[in-house]
Amino acid sequence: MTTTASAVRGVQGQTSYAGIVLPTHDEIAETIAPYVVERHPVDSAAWKAIAGPVQRYFWKKYHIKRLLKRNSRSQSKVRNEYEETWDFRDWPSPGDMRMKLTPCTWGDQGLHVRTHGTKRVHLLLLARVLRALKPKTVLEVGAGNGLNILVLAAMFPEIRFTSIDLTQAGVAKAHAAQAEETLPQLLMEYAPEPVVDPTAHRRADIRQGDASRLEFADNSFDLVYTSLALEQMQAVRDAAVSECARVASGHVVNVEPFREVNDRGTRKHYTIFNNYLDLKIAELPRFGLEPKLTFDDIPHKVTIGYGLAVSKVRSS
User: Which range of residues forms the domain containing residue 127?
Assistant: First the structure.
């Protein structure tokens, strides 16, 4: 089965741009397949037994939080949470790459997916964009422990990759993986498309930095991307998006929980509850970005969904 590109609901934009070949339904299914433990129709009793407890647990926490009126999440709190997260995990390791099971939906199917399964699909989307746009220099903002940039660097050795992350621990984990002569085998297997140069991960420039105050000159990179990073930057949202646009000379690419993908039901309230990104793709033009391609026909967690936006930087 194949499908055509799917625009994010409510966004007026193209579903093809600059020769970008978005993955078909079959290609996405193949990418996530190693991480799918079980699948059921979304209207089946078996799926409701999996997804129901997750949703009920969220709504219980949601109502308690509303009663306590606790809904703030500063960047310092985010940094502290992720410093602890990255410092705690032994990475890359099978235990981290296949941690817990997460219920996801994709069309009329419910998928019980190991944690990094959906992220592998996001990585495939980024790879397709890079292959078509052929940037020479790329910046990842909010690189975490380096999962995306290390794999992409090995897949696209002709690109000069740079990344920043807010946490020292995340950068340290990425540097530890870079110390290996070749890309760790676990990451080789995680790559959604073939690795071209298994030593190219060593050449990526991975450093600590603040997304709201990037230490790069205007137009420093052909392309800037974020993947589940702005999600955590609601407190500095406008500054972070503006900085991405400022240092990009060509395109900004985001795989994020845009509001259009989370505008109803559990997903809407889950993003509010966690103080995750509150931004519409339709708002990107006010940051000097012109959305050229949008896509969301991918597996989404039952609690939060993600959309791809490829935007052209407007000339000043």
Answer: 25-313
Note if the bond before 34 is cis, omega within 30 degrees.
no
Q: How far apart are CA 170 and CA 178, in angstroms?
A: 13
Close Cβ partners of 241 (under 8 Å, ≥ 6 residues apart): 230, 279, 284, 287, 289
Give the Cα separation of 313 and 247 in Å (integer).
10
Q: Which residues contact 61 (CB under 8 A, 6 or more apart)?
A: 273
Respond yes or no on whether the N-terminal peptide bond of residue 92 is cis (omega within 30° of 0). Answer: yes
Q: Report if residue 288 sits inside a domain.
A: yes
What does the pLDDT average to over 26-50?
Answer: 97
> 3-class DSSP state for residue 240?
helix
Q: What is the pLDDT of residues 79-133, one digit of tens each?
A: 888 888 777 777 776 556 556 899 999 999 999 999 899 999 999 999 999 999 9
Q: Which amino acid is at 189?
A: E
Q: Position of tokens 């990255």?
A: 86
Residue 57 confidence (pLDDT): 77
The tokens describing 192, both together, are 């959604």
The pLDDT of 55-69, averaged and rounded, is: 71
pLDDT band at 68; cut points 50, 70, 90: low
What is the number of structural domains in the chain?
1
Question: What's the CATH number where 49 sits?
Answer: 3.40.50.150
CB-based contacts of 40: which residues, under 8 Å, 6+ apart? Answer: 46, 47, 50, 109, 110
For residue 248, tell me if it sits in a domain: yes
Q: How far is the C-alpha of 63 from the C-alpha of 84, rounded, in Å? A: 27
Tell me whether residue 1 is in a domain: no
